[in-house]
């Protein structure tokens, strides 16, 4: 039995060799050999998966010390063509052909801004407690570090009645934080100016019409 690299057509005698080859020779691969088989997703399909990301990310945002830290969410049946359509043109997009796996990461302020465009929603990464006015948000930059949000897609095979069902699972990882903001500046710590550019202007009067927790949304305009 031979194992073929679909990126350069070389063959190997074991899967392990193929995996090593791909990891070393095609480390930064963006080519998808079967791209022609992936249909263009419909507009409705795209919107529903953008919304799924927004809703699930927002659900991980909280307002106290316990809701701060590394978070992970997964969507167990996620169409490959939607993932490719959303992330294919990003500089960090990678495809591992032997593993049938894609990955894309977004770092710092640039990443935060780019995800507004990809998810088509300005406030995809923050949420405010109506009572305490504390904002929970996805962390990209603080005074010490730059953080990243990563999206990966991998193909799974489910077996039922001796039939194989192939589906893709998306995993998204990110870091969350929370704080109180007035006019975009964190007020809990006066010694540093936070660079949370996506945090909307929140005043003490908390104008509800300015700030939406979750959907419906108005499209993000670049
Ligand atoms: Zn190869």
TrEMBL record:
<protein>
    <recommendedName>
        <fullName>C2H2-type domain-containing protein</fullName>
    </recommendedName>
</protein>
<dbReference type="GO" id="GO:0008270">
    <property type="term" value="F:zinc ion binding"/>
</dbReference>
<dbReference type="InterPro" id="IPR013087">
    <property type="entry name" value="Znf_C2H2_type"/>
</dbReference>
<keyword id="KW-0862">Zinc</keyword>
<keyword id="KW-0479">Metal-binding</keyword>
<feature type="domain" description="C2H2-type">
    <location>
        <begin position="3"/>
        <end position="31"/>
    </location>
</feature>
<keyword id="KW-0863">Zinc-finger</keyword>
<dbReference type="Pfam" id="PF12171">
    <property type="entry name" value="zf-C2H2_jaz"/>
</dbReference>
<dbReference type="InterPro" id="IPR022755">
    <property type="entry name" value="Znf_C2H2_jaz"/>
</dbReference>
């Amino acid at each position: 039995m031979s194992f073929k690299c679909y990126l350069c057509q070389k063959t190997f005698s074991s899967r392990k060799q193929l995996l090593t080859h791909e990891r070393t020779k095609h480390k930064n691969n963006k080519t998808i050999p079967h791209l022609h088989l992936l249909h263009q997703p419909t507009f409705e399909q795209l919107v529903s998966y953008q919304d799924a990301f927004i809703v699930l990310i927002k659900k991980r945002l909280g307002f106290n010390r316990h809701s701060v830290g590394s978070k992970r969410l997964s969507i167990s049946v996620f169409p490959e063509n939607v993932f490719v359509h959303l992330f294919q043109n990003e500089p960090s997009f990678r495809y591992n052909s032997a593993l049938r796996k894609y990955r894309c990461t977004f770092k710092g302020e640039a990443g935060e801004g780019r995800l507004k465009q990809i998810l088509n929603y300005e406030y995809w990464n923050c949420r405010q407690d109506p009572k305490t006015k504390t904002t929970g948000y996805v962390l990209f930059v603080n005074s010490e570090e730059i953080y990243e949000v990563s999206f990966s897609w991998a193909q799974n095979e489910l077996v039922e009645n001796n039939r194989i069902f192939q589906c893709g699972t998306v995993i998204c990882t990110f870091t969350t934080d929370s704080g109180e903001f007035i006019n975009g500046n964190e007020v809990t710590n006066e010694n540093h100016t936070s660079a949370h550019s996506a945090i909307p202007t929140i005043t003490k009067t908390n104008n509800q019409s300015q700030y939406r927790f979750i959907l419906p949304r108005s499209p993000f305009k670049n």
